[in-house]
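Quick note —
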Amino acid sequence: MTQALYGGVNAALITAVGADLAPDHVRTAAHAKWLLANGCDGLGVLGTTGEAASFGLRERREILESLVQNDVPVTRLMPGTGVPNITDTVELSRHARDLGCPGVLVLPPFYYKNPSGEGLYAYFSEVIERTGSGLAFYLYHFPAQSAVPLTVELIGRLIEAFPGVVRGVKDSTGDPAQAEGFIKAFASRGFEVYPGADNLLQRMLAIGAAGCITAASNICARFSQVVFTQRSGPEADAAQRVVDACRAAAGSAPLIPGLREVLARSTGDEGWRHIRPPHTRLSPAQADAVWAAWQGTGALPLPGLEEYGMSLAAE
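Predicted structure written out below.
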């Protein structure tokens, strides 16, 4: 395949918030830089794990701007820009392009249910045409959240209409048949397929995936990077087993507060537990259980936290 813009391991970056629930730009940037130094090739910003739907347009622009201002390399960022209307999706996409992001991840319009294939094609076409040149579009396939599946036929039609612009897909179904279908249909044409399920990484790389964009990579990216680099053999197999365990640990509690709890305990920083409603903190029992699950993965403790301001003195 042609050189993938985001080839490799990409974490679905957590967005830190303060006690007042405002975006915490300092913690978010510190975590982003730690990830890039510990196994990540790139970062999916303001996706599901980053709670994009919990932030307004101004906040979303500021979060992305602050990452760049805090010296997170803009060429490593894939921001989510899809909202249920054309106007705001175009605004966020242009903003990302003008900052220097190579590409954006775009959800389908997710309020109206059962849109037709023709309606989805018209929506994405309008977004791409109105955004203008200089930006790659990645389609976000997550029907469990969006309730809007993206078919092979729709993606093929968009690739034909916008060659080199509709560049890839993140498939967050967790269904190997779905990711494999996208790879077999389009990878030979340079189309980048990124599974969102950590446990599929080695299997999908073997048939042409460009890498991954996953939530558990917030914790275990260095092991995913071994899988991506080595692909097969004892070292890759052992690393994939750790990644599989991390995927299971991440699923043992509500995902977003669970990841925040692991970061809070790993860094000694209570600030990682702050979270915007409707998400809520874990109960003490849930918190202890998810921490125990993660301790059993082999991915902890996290290395190199102090260098990036990620460790505070225990109270």
